[in-house]
Amino acid sequence: MSRQPNQEFQEWWNKQQKAHGSDDLFPSSSENSSFFAVEIRSPTVDEKERTRSARQLSWIYLLKFQQIANSIAFLTNSFISIVRTANRRIVTSNSAPPRSDSRLYSVIKVFLTVSVILLVFELVAYFRGWHFSPPTVESASAEVVDLAEYVYANWLDIRANYLAPPLQSLTNMCIVLFLVQSVDRMVLVFGCFWIKFRRLKPFAEIEYSSDVENLNAEDYPMVLVQIPMCNEREVYQQSIAAVCIQDWPKDRMLVQILDDSDDLGVQGLIKAEVQKWQQRGVHIVYRHRLIRTGYKAGNLKSAMSCDYVKNYEFVAIFDADFQPTPDFLKNTVPYFKGHDDVALVQTRWAFVNKDENLLTRLQNINLAFHFEVEQQVNGWFINFFGFNGTAGVWRIKALEECGGWLDRTTVEDMDIAVRAHLCGWKFIYVNDVKCLCELPESYEAYKKQQHRWHSGPMQLFRLCFSDILRSKVRMGYLS
């Protein structure tokens, strides 16, 4: 229901309009300060975008400034680290005794110095424009030129006539070696594919059962287990325990702890661990050398000289950081049965810290190719591969026939493998049996390991090259 209009108010309003007019009823702000008008309007789209763009630009500049600051801090820290490392190396080299290979380092320093000087000279020639029209010796001699141009012309002549040919020959040789290595890798990969496709595996004549009640000890050959170690404070307990719990008759196995530690505290800890397992009925002995000659090779050679070794047929070798599974001997020793010409049964390494950091991941990729492809293909097709120094079982007769352990190189494992192969012995690689171990997690430890692994084969090549040429191993033997 609508309201009734107020007639009295309407009449009064009309009278006021006639008497004063409409302008007097609503005076402007200039006439009466008590009345003012405020215009309220929403910002336009352009103003919003302008405000938003300014804010975004300020954040972008802040992020750019932060990135620049982080880059400067990173470069500064890297430069300081390089300077500290160089200073430490210089101090160490000055305090260290003179090395036998100082001549090689002197040659390298001279070569680097000459290279830097020649590089500076090439830069000068570049900025003078000589690289567009290089001067010749004849033109430099006929014309009046400065000394730098004359020297540069002679340098170009020496570089073209005397340095380029041997460098080109060296480059060609490197290309040939690269092609040879590439073909070798392709053949190994195809061989691995063939093994996987045909499901080829080495065959064992016997298989040991897990039935302890019907165990016949005469079926188990005498096995000697050796663990060479030196100041292994962190891993000695795990390695000794893993060997002592082998699923093998106790009276058919003897464990030798070959300790070369020079730390009396570590020696006491290892002796106590050996005594603990002796009390549990394990046949285990502790051996320590007063004079550590030959390092690992000398340690193994000293252990094999014991009188009781002649009572054993096989020897299993484990480094201090390896932990074999309890069925390791049961999975490896049967491959010797019925194969009297087999000297070595090598197993695969499995790494417990392969995902620790980037360095261990890269090492795992490299060593996985070594075991999965190289060792497996060579073991199946030619019955020979390099002994890895651990996680393998040797026939003691083969060790004695090839001359035993020698300390003439840093890779005594590869040395004895080559000598055993030259004597006509065969090897078997078992890819299904794995032995747990650890990878070097720091760059310093990895560098030491790689130095030993790469310098040793070159020494061995120099020592065994003539023996390989005079060997009577026929090509038919490799098939």
Automatic annotation (TrEMBL):
Residues 315-461 form the Glycosyltransferase 2-like domain. The keyword Amino-acid biosynthesis does not apply. InterPro entries: Glyco_trans_2-like (IPR001173), Nucleotide-diphossugar_trans (IPR029044). It holds the Pfam family Glyco_trans_2_3. Gene3D superfamilies: Spore Coat Polysaccharide Biosynthesis Protein SpsA, Chain A. Keywords: Cell wall biogenesis/degradation, Glycosyltransferase, Golgi apparatus, Membrane, Transferase, Transmembrane, Transmembrane helix. Its main location: Golgi. It is a multi-pass membrane protein. It is found in: Golgi apparatus membrane. Residues 1-29 are annotated as: Disordered. The keyword Manganese does not apply. This is Xyloglucan glycosyltransferase 6. The lineage of its organism: Eukaryota, Viridiplantae, Streptophyta, Embryophyta, Tracheophyta. The gene is CSLC6_2.
